[in-house]
Amino acid sequence: MNKCYIDGSIGQCGHSSRSADKAAASGTVMDLKKDFHMNSGAGDNSYARNSKIQGLIISKSQSERRKAAVAAYLGTGRPATMSVADLGCSSGPTALLAVEDIMVAVERACVELHGQPPEFNLLLNDLYGNDFNALFRSFPEFNSRRQGKGLCFVTGVPGTFYGRLFAAKSLHLVCSSSSLHWLSQMPEELQQKEGSPAACVNKGKVFISAGSPPCVAEAYRKQFHRDFTTFLRCRAEEIVRGGLMVLAFMSRKNREAALMEDRYIWGLLEDALNAMASEERIDSFDAPFYAPSMEELEEEIGGEGSFCIRSSDQFLVRWDDDNQYSGTGGEANVTARPVKHAVRMAKGVRAVAESMLRSHFGEGFGMDDLFCRYGGLLAQYYADSEAAVTNVVISLVRK
């Protein structure tokens, strides 16, 4: 294990990479549709190896997803072919969990109703850079688990869900997990235009922080409003009347964005970046991430008007939910616990965010150094704080 994770030391991580991003400083604003994707393959830094918490979120939202699946099937007249879209499916071991849940729930309902289960049209969506090849290679194992059950037909659908993806009135159910907290772009009001400084600059910061001016939280709120409204309008065109969506993603308990309880995730990464990157590159980067409150979601859904809320719930997901370090074990166990959480989280964040960080800060930027520093800072944080993040699962019915 890298020493920086064990003792939380930043100094063990190697040299600064400020010079590595000089060539990137004149680059254009990154295009997240092209530049953002989970780390591919099956290596140590891949999403496939570091998506445990996303799997836990899928597991914790399973009950709502299964209820929504049955409601969508019955509410749309028991279609002979049920079209299900998973938005932000990624690849790796979590990629097919949600759609498999849905099929199991509908098929069980059909047995109870003494009816014939539908065929399933599964539409798996993610951004263009997603490792669809790895996703497709997982189908033989998926099909073996489905042996003896109803037919399903699978299609990969590359593209952003902040736009139309499917034919009008063609979907019965949409699900999405751990995706909608990602915005379509860095907040528009914070982007620095060439030759003209942004209206408000989040100096030395990459997210909403205690030191950010109020306009930063407002810029994030506006970007979320634009994106989520677009998302709802596009899905309203694609989902049949009576069809459902079940969405799970990070949220916050506080209504005010400036009080977002999980902002330390970006705040500590910001500290690691400030030790390595140029001020110019940090000032021109704002994480395209927003965790809305339940109140915000209710207002956005009600304001757009195409869906009504069927159910909603907030829940915590812990980085130590496997309980590996939750039992007794004395002082050594207490010391090891925050280190274990930090290692897992640093690897998980790297698997998700590395592509956009590399796009912005440059190919030569030291990612090993960055996430070594980040892991050390996380270990210090988790020594005194809970290793948990807030999520929401919300079920919506197409009016």
**What number of structural domains do the residues give?**
1
Question: How are strands sequenced across the largest beta sheet?
Answer: 3-2-1-4-5-7-6
Principal-axes shape call? globular
Largest sheet: 7 strands, mixed
Portion in strands: 15-25%
What does this protein look like?
- The protein is an alpha/beta fold and 399 residues long.
- It has a single domain, classed as Vaccinia Virus protein VP39 (Rossmann fold).
- It is built from 13 helices and seven strands.
- Strands 3-2-1-4-5-7-6 form a seven-stranded mixed β-sheet, with helices on both faces.
- α8 (214-238) links the parallel β4 (171-177) and β5 (239-250).
- α4 (62-75) packs across α5 (97-112).
- The longest helix is centred in the C-terminal third of the chain and has 32 residues, at 330-361.
- The chain starts with a helix and ends with a strand.
- Mean pLDDT is 88; it is low at 1-12, 15-27 and 323-332.
Task: Describe what is shown at a glance.
This protein is α/β, with parallel strands linked by helices. It contains 13 helices and seven strands. It has a seven-stranded mixed β-sheet with strand order 3-2-1-4-5-7-6, with helices on both faces.
Which key phrases capture this entry?
single chain; 399 residues; alpha/beta; Rossmann fold; seven-stranded mixed sheet; globular; disordered N terminus
Tell me the layout of helices and strands.
Layout: H1 3-7, H2 32-35, H3 52-60, H4 62-75, E1 81-87, H5 97-112, E2 119-126, H6 132-137, H7 139-145, E3 152-158, E4 171-177, H8 214-238, E5 239-250, H9 264-274, H10 279-283, H11 294-304, E6 307-318, H12 330-361, H13 367-382, E7 388-398
Parallel strand pairs: 1-2, 1-4, 2-3, 4-5
Antiparallel strand pairs: 5-7, 6-7
Helix pairs in contact: 4-5, 9-13, 12-13
